[in-house]
Amino acid sequence: MAAISDLDSAPSALGANPRQTPLVSLSLLIVAFFLGRFNQSSLYPLQEAMAAAKGLTDNDVALLQGPAFILPFVILSVPLGMAVDRTVRVPLLIAALLMGAIGSGATAYADSLATMFLGRALVGLSTSAVTVTVFSMISDIFPAEQRGRAKSAADVAGQVGGSAAFLFGGLVLAASDKGALGWRSALLLMTTPLVIGAAILLALREPVRAERPVVGPSTGQMLAELRTYLPLILPLIMGAVLIEIPIVGAFIWGAPILTRSFSLGAGEVGGIMSAVLLLSGLAGPILCGLLSDACHRTGGPRRAIGAVALLIFVSVPGCLFVAAPSAAIAAIILGLFMTCLSGALSMIVTAFTIVTPGQLRGLCLSLLSASAAVGGVALAPLLISWLSATFGGPAMIGKALACICFPSSLLACASLLLGMRALSRIGAYPPGQENGT
């Protein structure tokens, strides 16, 4: 806790506004990140009940949780990134939360798969906009050597938000005996915190951008400068894409796997997944945030990326949690697996914010998020459900998840090693980033 509290003494990008310290700004950004991930996860504990009530197949659910969720952000990632780099970000953050509430409400009221697709699309765009905006603002508030801890605080909030969604959704669903009304009521109730959070964010102050912006950059100028960084950032983007696959796969299909493999009820599964996500979401980002800052202080981004590759490699056997002899052991293995992966992804994003220049950071973060979302959120659920059908049906979903996640994790390690090689050719930091800012 002291590690996070120490951030309040960091050199502040908010020096022009002494009424709001870095810690206060970070606290408000944490609220936004919590709500974004809470809304993203709100449908996960309800998807079995939703599928039964609406007559949806696993592929239909995967479509809603994957392509529907991420397609708008992929299409709009470049405009969103440029907006984050060029405009005032606080209104963007507030609008993103309200958009998420509208999307979840539309999903709950939907009477067709197409309408549900539209609702989930709004939720996906909202979540991605919150992520990019929060990380951009954190990068302007804190210097590189403290950015890992600051970002880990937001990551913890996001994991707690996902865990809270599983717990709340499972409890509401277990308490309801009204079939379709149960999942709809739960989803509608879970939109309320977003509206409250949007009002709270009116207190957030826009941070001064920590690096000298390019005056009036055109789209062509920004893209031209981006090309000079591609040899460095592409391996990091690919590593994030590949590690997002097992994270999202376990996140989306973890509850159905526990339900089908161990014959657990909705309340039991909701409690297990809530505990797994909460503990892994706390331990992973906090421990890896400290590790990230230590690596950046002693060896720069290259050492941090090497630590990420090792962490992912060690976590690979966790893909086999479905083979555990009991639900308790499966939950423990899944928790360790998610702890390693959530921490690893947090370290990748932290390194990314350090090696990219400030005037391109929002654009680069948007491209990173969009690319990871295509591989993880859009493709992973569908690949796993399709492979499960090939293996023999819904009961094979755990085997399918293991077959997808195992090679993906190994390839992520290889991609990060390529990123280390690129960094070794240009030094600890890219040109213009000597001090890590």
Can you describe this structure in just a few lines?
By secondary structure, this protein is mostly helical.
Summarize the structure in words.
This protein is mainly alpha-helical and 437 residues long. The protein folds into two domains: 20-207, MFS general substrate transporter like domains (Growth Hormone, Chain: A), CATH 1.20.1250.20; 224-426, MFS general substrate transporter like domains (Growth Hormone, Chain: A), CATH 1.20.1250. It has helices at 2-5, 22-41, 47-54, 58-65, 67-86, 89-109, 113-141, 144-175, 180-189, 192-200, 219-262, 266-315, 327-355, 361-391, 397-426. Helix 8 (144-175) runs antiparallel to helix 12 and helix 12 crosses helix 13. It is globular. The model is unreliable at 1-5 and 8-18 (pLDDT under 50). Keywords: Membrane, Transmembrane, Transmembrane helix, Transport. The chain crosses the membrane at residues 21-38, 62-83, 90-110, 122-144, 156-175, 181-204, 229-252, 272-292, 304-323, 329-355, 362-384, 396-418. Residues 25-427 form the Major facilitator superfamily (MFS) profile domain.
Topology:
Elements: H1 2-5, H2 22-41, H3 47-54, H4 58-65, H5 67-86, H6 89-109, H7 113-141, H8 144-175, H9 180-189, H10 192-200, H11 219-262, H12 266-315, H13 327-355, H14 361-391, H15 397-426
Helix pairs in contact: 2-6, 2-7, 2-8, 2-10, 3-9, 4-5, 4-7, 4-14, 5-7, 5-14, 6-7, 6-9, 6-10, 7-8, 7-14, 8-9, 8-12, 8-13, 11-12, 11-13, 11-14, 11-15, 12-13, 12-15, 14-15
